[in-house]
Amino acid sequence: MIKGRSAWMALATVLVGAGMVAAIDGFVDTPMLPTAPWHVHDPNRPQPRVVTPGAVPSADPVKPPSDAVVLFDGTNFDQWVGDKGAPTWKLADGAMTAVPGQGGIRTKAKFGDCQLHVEWSSPDPPRGAGQDRGNSGVFLLNRYEIQVLDCYNAQTYADGTTGALYGAWPPLVNACRKPGEWNTYDIFFTGPRFKDGKVETPAYVTLLVNGIVVHNHQPELGATVWRAVAKYDPHPAEDVIALQEHGHPVRFRNIWVRPLGTYDEVQAAPETK
Ligand code: MG
What we know:
The protein is mainly β.
């Protein structure tokens, strides 16, 4: 989540074949997770199994449903503000691209429980390794990061791989496409509920990466942090959706959100004249 190039990085070595040794970036001086026998960002935590997704998305992305709030249709930044004011990400060819050093962007509107569709593409040709390779992120409620990272033929600590609930849960499988190809995230998010200043129910995330379930109603440990165990602090039920700038020109397109209602909603009566 946070740039840590200056921090001490532990390296674990794993044998990946006869005579071959690859290093996985990560940390073993971090706290143990309360939910799994691993350190936060543990390089020894098993790598998610690689699954090759089905057909590559069309150059013409699937259109949003009729009740979606379109956050980005490839033509403008009307729904966004940048960390430093107006968005300064690059806009071209129906996509926006994070510009290193320019900070992240976030929606003007606030959302709570929602269905969120995001498409992203990592830099081609790829550059860097580990966390320093096509890193970005999608933040629900401005706090809960779903990792965006190029993990195609690339490894890093499991709780920081493509689609990870960063710092807590690796994806069930690694469904990352090749650099330059479009990945889809379909996120089904339920925000946490607080009572008397304490978390009553955690945030839950269901996530499909390229149509493959990688989280199934998985509870978040808390607001995303780096090198620490996440925890909950009370916050409003709605907040902005943010995209991370982490030093890499990751592209995004076709972003839309559907706030989730309740069962048995009464439909508004059709207008009559
Ligand atoms: Mg990230």
